[in-house]
Amino acid sequence: MIGDQLGPVYGSVAFLVDxxxxxxxxxxxxxxxxxxxxMAIGYGGATSMDYTLPVIERTGGVHCVPVAVASGFILSxxxxxxxxxxxxxx
Length: 90
Fold this sequence. Notes:
The chain has helices at residues 2-6, 8-32, 37-44, 53-60, 65-89. By secondary structure, it is mainly alpha-helical. Helix 2 runs antiparallel to helix 3 and helix 3 (37-44) crosses helix 5.
């Protein structure tokens, strides 16, 4: 969506930023989840229901899984609605 509206350079930058965010989330979740589980799940963003879910479950326990799935689902649904809004502002 970003590449379509702003061009391939910004689309590539958005992809790389998202990839780096996911890698940082994978590294931070095991350390943060002990202190504040909701914040650690938030680091995963929309990927907390699929890509980072195994790390969340392994380090936070099974009780964190429903929150992670619900958070990831809501963020995945809201992204296609919010991206055009924010791109229209820029």
